[in-house]
Design a protein that fits this description.
The protein has nine helices and ten strands. The chain has 245 residues and is of the alpha/beta class.
């Protein structure tokens, strides 16, 4: 479970880029985090990960405070960034073993998971090549596998579909649902509203640093009294927010 309690972030004194956000991503739930460019999605994710300081409020990962107990909190989640350009001089298998070492995954368990996941993402034959030789999509696959190696209770994924081929996209969505079915929390940021509509149990919409909606697709439709697609509802709710500010 990921809990965001009354969280605000200031980059300049008196100017809040994130304003009093409250969110709970429950175990067994896929939660989609939506918003325009510059709305505050990346800042929020960086605070959840502990990369950015929180000016006000608290973020808990399975009850562990990300600022007061950073190591314990970070053990509780796996993270997939939107940019996989990292550890380029390592071979794919070296990177995965490095991640497994950090999370103290046993030799037997890591071998089984790497074999299984690399076959699912059809990258098993490239693991002995350096990551710098991979395409963007292949790099993304290795990062995804690394995030799953320690069977985290929480998955945090930033724009996960970018660069993936259709089969790998399908596998990732299956894995996200499998994790939710195991009782894990899945939090992901996306611009692809069609994916969010089909995959998410709940969504949150952020705009100008403020959370303007949290709930299910049916709850959005009920609130707006319209039977439209998520894309149409999203455009309407963000437009209404702009007009009210």
């Amino acid at each position: 479970m990921i809990e965001i309690k009354n969280v605000s972030k200031e980059y300049k004194k008196g100017i809040k880029t994130i304003e009093n956000i409250n969110l709970k991503i429950n175990n067994g739930e896929i939660f989609g985090f939506l918003g325009p460019n510059g709305a505050g999605k990346t800042t929020t994710i960086k605070m959840i990960k502990g990369i950015l300081d929180i000016n006000e409020g608290q973020i808990l990962i399975d009850g562990k405070d990300i600022e007061k107990e950073p190591i314990e909190a970070k053990k509780k989640f796996g993270y997939v960034p939107d940019n996989p350009e990292m550890f380029l001089k390592l071979k794919g298998i070296e990177y995965l073993n490095f991640i497994a070492d950090i999370y103290e995954v046993s030799e037997e368990e890591r071998k089984e998971k790497i074999e299984n996941l690399s076959k699912r993402f059809e990258i098993n034959k490239a693991l002995n090549n350096k990551i710098e030789s991979y395409s963007h999509g292949m790099k993304q696959k290795v990062i995804i596998i690394g995030a799953l190696l320690h069977s985290p209770n929480n998955l945090i994924i930033d724009e996960p579909i970018t660069g993936l081929d259709p089969k790998s996209t399908f596998e990732l969505k299956k894995i996200m649902r499998e994790n939710a079915n195991l009782g894990h929390a899945v939090f992901f940021s996306t611009h692809i509203l069609d994916v969010a509509e089909k995959l998410c149990d709940k969504i949150g919409i952020i705009n100008k640093g403020k959370l303007i909606f949290v709930g299910t697709i049916d709850e959005i439709k009920k609130e707006l009294k319209q039977n439209k697609s998520l894309e149409e509802l999203y455009m309407e709710i963000t437009k209404n927010d702009e007009e009210n500010n």
